[in-house]
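for the recovery benchmark. C-alpha cells below, seq after
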C-alpha cells in the first residue's frame, strides 16, 4: 500500500466549485459549476460570495464585503456535476470571486445549512503496482472505483472509492457499497475470493471473444459472398439491358471542359400550372438550388462525367438530349425567370445569403482553469438582416485535426442588421492540444 495524505472538508455538501467571469451586454456574468457530493438531489443552492476587482481589492455590495448568490430551479443528481450556470453579478467591477456554500435545498424539501469549513487531514493507504493483481480483481469483481483501503476514525469513514462518509452512514454515498461489504472484500479472505472469481471471469471473456471473432468472420464471409453475387448480377443487367436505353436520353460531350462550358447558367423547373418553382444555377464548379420562397442550397460539383452526360454534387443530375437538366423526377429547362421572395417581398437578381454576407474576424482561442474558449466577431456585410444565426466552432490541434466542437447562437431574435457587428463565445472542456478554432455558419433565419 502507498500512503497518501488527503485533506477533506467533512462539513461540505458540494465540491469542485469552479467559476469564470465574462462580460455580456455590459454586465459581469459568473459562469459557475460544482459537483454534488451525494447527500440528495439538489434543487437550489445559496453561496456566500466575495467579489474582488482586478487589483485584488474587495468590491463592496450595499456597504458589505460579501453578498449572496442564489441558484434555483436546478436538478443536480447525486454525484453529478452541473456546469455553465450563468449568474449576473451585482457590480461590473467584480473580476474575481470567493465562493462558499451557504445553504442547500434538496428535492425532498430538506434545507441544509453549511456549518463552516472543517478540513481534516486523512492518511489513506492506496493500492500500488505491487498489488495490481488484487486491485484488478477488486475492480472487476467488487467495484470499478476501488482505490484505497477502508479508513475509519472518530469523524467517519472513507470508502475504498475515496468518498468521506459520516459515522452514521452505513452505505457510501458515491459507490453505494456498505461499510461491511468493503471490509469483507478488502480482507484476506475477500481478496483471495476476488482473485479466483476474476480468473473465471477472464476465462469466460476470452472464450466469448473467440466465439465472437469466429462468428463475425463467418458473417463477413457470407456477406461478401452475397455482395459479390449481387454486384455481378447488377453489372450484367445494367450493362446489357440498361445502358443503351439510358444513354439514348442523355447528352454526352467530347471533353470535361466542353461539358463545363456548355452547362454554365440558370435552369428553371416549372409546376403543373406553369409557374417557376425552383432553379439550378451553375457557376464554375458551384451549383445552387434556389426556391421561389427564398431558400437556397449551395453545393460543389464534384464530378463532370462528360462520357455519361452526368454531373454529381451530393446527388446525380442528368443532362438531357435537349441540353436541360433532370434531377430525379424534376426537369429543369435552360434559362427562365423566377421571382424570389426577399425580406421586402421584391425580386433582386443578385444572390445573397448569410453564408456570403456574414464574415468572421478577431478569432481568438484562450483557456482558463476549466475550459478552452473561442471568441470572435461576426459582421453583416450584406443588405439583409439575419436572425437566429447558429455558428459551429471546430477546435483543432497543431496538425489541423478537429479534437472537439461547440455551437452557439451568435445572433438571436434581435437580428444583425447590415453593417452591424457582434461578439460571440464558444467553449469546450479544457484541452492543451487545442491551438486554433475554425468558425462556420451552421444555420440561420
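predicted aa per position
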Amino acid at each position: 500500500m502507498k500512503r497518501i495524505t488527503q485533506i477533506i472538508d467533512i462539513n461540505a455538501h458540494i465540491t469542485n466549485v469552479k467559476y469564470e467571469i465574462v462580460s455580456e451586454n455590459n454586465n459581469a456574468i459568473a459562469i459557475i459549476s460544482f459537483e454534488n457530493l451525494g447527500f440528495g438531489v439538489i434543487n437550489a443552492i445559496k453561496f456566500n460570495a466575495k467579489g474582488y476587482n482586478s487589483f485584488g481589492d474587495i468590491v463592496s455590495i450595499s456597504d458589505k464585503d460579501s453578498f449572496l448568490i442564489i441558484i434555483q430551479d436546478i436538478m443536480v443528481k447525486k454525484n453529478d456535476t452541473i456546469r455553465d450556470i450563468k449568474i449576473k453579478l451585482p457590480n461590473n467591477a467584480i473580476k474575481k470571486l470567493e465562493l462558499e456554500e451557504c445553504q442547500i435545498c434538496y428535492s425532498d424539501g430538506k434545507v441544509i445549512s453549511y456549518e463552516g469549513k472543517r478540513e481534516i487531514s486523512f492518511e489513506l493507504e492506496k493500492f500500488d503496482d505491487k498489488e495490481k493483481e488484487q486491485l484488478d480483481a477488486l475492480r472487476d469483481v467488487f467495484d470499478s472505483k476501488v482505490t484505497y483501503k477502508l479508513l475509519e476514525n472518530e469523524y467517519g469513514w472513507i470508502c475504498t472509492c475515496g468518498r468521506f462518509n459520516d459515522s452514521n452512514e452505513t452505505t457510501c454515498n458515491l459507490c453505494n457499497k456498505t461499510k461491511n461489504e468493503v471490509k469483507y472484500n478488502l480482507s484476506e479472505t475477500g481478496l483471495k475470493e476476488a482473485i479466483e472469481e476474476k480468473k473465471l471471469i477472464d476465462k469466460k471473456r476470452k472464450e466469448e471473444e473467440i466465439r465472437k471473432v469466429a462468428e463475425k468472420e463467418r458473417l463477413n464471409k457470407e456477406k461478401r459472398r452475397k455482395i459479390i453475387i449481387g454486384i455481378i448480377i447488377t453489372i450484367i443487367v445494367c450493362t446489357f439491358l440498361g445502358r443503351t436505353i439510358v444513354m439514348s436520353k442523355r447528352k454526352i460531350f467530347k471533353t470535361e471542359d466542353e461539358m463545363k462550358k456548355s452547362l454554365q447558367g440558370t435552369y428553371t423547373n416549372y409546376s403543373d400550372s406553369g409557374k417557376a418553382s425552383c432553379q439550378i444555377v451553375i457557376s464554375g464548379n458551384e451549383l445552387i438550388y434556389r426556391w421561389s420562397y427564398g431558400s437556397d442550397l449551395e453545393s460543389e460539383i464534384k464530378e463532370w462525367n462528360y462520357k455519361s452526360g452526368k454531373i454529381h454534387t451530393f446527388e446525380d443530375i442528368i443532362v438531357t438530349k435537349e441540353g436541360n437538366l433532370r434531377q430525379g423526377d424534376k426537369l429543369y429547362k435552360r434559362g427562365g425567370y423566377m421571382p424570389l421572395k426577399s425580406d421586402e417581398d421584391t425580386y433582386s437578381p443578385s444572390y445573397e445569403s448569410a453564408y456570403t454576407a456574414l464574415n468572421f474576424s478577431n478569432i481568438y482561442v484562450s483557456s482558463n482553469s476549466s475550459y478552452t474558449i473561442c471568441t470572435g466577431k461576426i459582421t453583416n456585410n450584406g443588405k439583409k438582416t439575419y436572425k437566429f444565426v447558429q455558428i459551429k466552432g471546430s477546435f483543432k490541434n497543431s496538425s489541423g485535426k478537429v479534437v472537439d466542437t461547440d455551437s452557439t447562437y451568435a445572433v438571436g431574435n434581435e437580428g444583425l442588421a447590415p453593417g452591424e457587428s457582434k461578439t460571440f463565445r464558444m467553449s469546450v472542456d479544457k484541452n492543451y492540444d487545442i491551438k486554433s478554432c475554425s468558425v462556420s455558419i451552421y444555420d440561420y433565419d
